[in-house]
Amino acid sequence: MTVIETEYTLKLPRTSFTPGTYTFVSDNAGKITHALSVDGPGVRDARTKDIPAGHSATVTVTLAKGTYDVYCPVDSHRQMGMNQHIRVG
Ligand SMILES: [Cu+2]
């Protein structure tokens, strides 16, 4: 699934998932460097490499039942709004 990143939001196609393995394609549609991290049950700060503007990168994670944070780990972007919760179950 593709996540669109801009300053300073993340757009996910959906926020509800069934358990399983997923590859997040992070598409940096912004003007500065971003990245994408996933954190939650069994997943500890999995992340893409830093993604320059106009590029994309992937991170593959196995999601179990629970709630996960999907966020941009660059600087304070997470606190600036690049943070979403997804629910798995
Ligand atoms: Cu960012």
Structural notes for this entry:
The protein is mostly beta strands and 89 residues long. The protein has strands at 2-6, 9-11, 16-17, 20-28, 37-40, 43-47, 56-63, 66-71, 83-88. It has a 5-stranded mixed sheet with strand order 3-9-8-5-6, with no helix packed on it. The radius of gyration is 12 Å and the shape is globular. The model has no long low-confidence stretch (mean pLDDT 97).
The topology string of helices and strands comes to EEEEEEEEE
> Termini separation (Å)?
18 Å
Main sheet attributes: strand count, strand direction, barrel closure: 5 strands, mixed
Bound molecules: copper (II) ion
What fraction of the residues are assigned to beta strands by DSSP? over 45%
Could you name the key traits of this structure?
single chain, 89 residues, mainly beta, 5-stranded mixed beta sheet, 4-stranded mixed beta sheet, 0% helix, binds copper (II) ion
Short summary:
By secondary structure, the protein is mostly beta strands. The strands form 2 sheets. It has a 5-stranded mixed β-sheet, with no helix packed on it.
Secondary-structure blueprint of this entry?
Layout: E1 2-6, E2 9-11, E3 16-17, E4 20-28, E5 37-40, E6 43-47, E7 56-63, E8 66-71, E9 83-88
Parallel strand pairs: 1-4, 3-9
Antiparallel strand pairs: 1-2, 4-7, 5-6, 5-8, 8-9
